[in-house]
Amino acid sequence: MDKPLIKIYGKIIFVFSFFILAFFVWLSLISTSTVTLTENVFFTEISGIRQLIVFLILLAVSFIPPVNGCLKTAGDKLEKNDKLFKGIYYGLFGLLLLMSVIWVFATRFISWADSVEVQKAAAGLVSGDYSAFTAGGYIGRWHNQIGLVLIEAAVIKVFGPNSGIVFQLVNAICVPVIAAGLSEFVSLRIHKIVTVLVSILYLPLLFSISHVYGNIPGLMLSLLAFVFLFDAFEKKSVKLGILSALLMGLACLVKQNYIIFLIAYIIICILTAIKNKKMISLLAALIAVVTGILLSVISTGITEHILGFKVEGGVSKWSYIAMAMQEGYRAPGWCNDYNMDTYDLVGHDEALQSEMAKKEVHALAANFAAHPKYAVDFYVRKLASQWNEPTFQTIWNLRSHEGKLPGAIDHMVSIYGSFKVIPYFKFFEVVIYLSAFLFVCFEKKFDERSLLLLTTFIGGVLFHILWEAKAQYALFYFLLLIPVAVKGCGSFRSTVNGFATERKAKKEKDKKSAFKVRMDLLICLVLFLLFLGVLYYLHIPATLTGGSLPYYQYIVENSL
User: Fold this and answer.
1) Is the pTM of this model over 0.90?
2) 66 with 172: CB under 8 angstroms?
3) I want to staple 394 with a disulfide (CB 3.0 to 4.6 A). Which of 204, 227, 271, 390 is the partner?
4) Residue 418: strand, helix, or coil
């Protein structure tokens, strides 16, 4: 990517990535957000300093000559030996698939909260109970779930009303495909293996299998769409481009949150068209959009045909934006029932609710403008509640199950047990954020694959600043950072090893190259220090640790 517009876009992504990841690294080091059984968020003083020290020690060890040599030798062997690479890669893939299936049968967790409502609506669509689709019903309120409901109804039609385990097995199959998809965003074979290995060790991905809500299949379809898109570019294949677009549209049907992925997909298609002057990328973008719209229209049409009446109204999107700007009993910007209460208040009139919500948005915006320090405090807490919760609410979702759980799992999902395992999850949070930050700082030029991942991640962060917040929503953007983090460690190691090589070299060209890299790092360091200075000037750290005592009391009271 070398056109002026593309260079400018790359710089924009660099700036956004730098500040967002710097902020998240800082958050993870000074505090931790925790979610209680009643979905209240505590901002605690549990820091990631110990995890940082462990990571820095491991990173330092990797530069010890014998270890450094072994890593280089292993990388070279994997690049040259197809049999060795495939044996390890597919072995890890099979291990993750086995773990996923065993998790389903060993735990038998039952979905709850919104996922249960979706399954009830799907069962009702099959049995003839259409109450969920009326103006005051669950789907009558949340039209965005119609696609998922129709898909689940088809499964229930085949496997019967007790199809929860079928949905979880679908998730279990999707998880290793997700890990494989993430590994396609790195080029070196050793990085591919590390990406899959991290996906195995990062347990929230495994835990999310039990939560039947369309997130896992949607992510799998989105990643496959991304992978096939780049295959289409490289092989100049129209068929792969069309397949990619269809998968992207289908992902949006399964879960409308993946529209953020679609937008990033479209941006990369446009940039690629500018670079290569080929219409195939624009065709893929167009087909993806048309597919998403058509599938939405078709799924709604089929549902209304079954019902015999139109599904009209629905909660106004403006009410979500208003709620996202309000303090709540859970956390800032989280669901506080404003959207539901006002919808009922106006007699399920979407237009009237929109007008009410717009006035609320204007009033809240005026309040933020009049009190800028409060506005910063509000949005810092909102971001921390989502992106600084190490489990991303995956343990919170594991509350109801059939039969007896294995001892270790039973302990881990308990209130005290989940508190004790925070350091493990915190380690991955710190390492992935910091390593992704290293990538942004040490990678001289973002390739198309990295740009797509970072664009999607940034889109998710910005969207949930404006929209309803919830930690579990952030997980599927956080996972996109795994290959970025793997490449980040590689970029950092390459830079450090390059400095060592340049010190031995006497060529003026090499010295200038080293100086340029160091100047880039110096600029990043200055920006980061200024960023931290503003936050401490506003006394933000105190805000992010103020819930420590209530949280510890909560743990003690529920562990006796």
Assistant:
1) yes
2) no
3) 204
4) helix
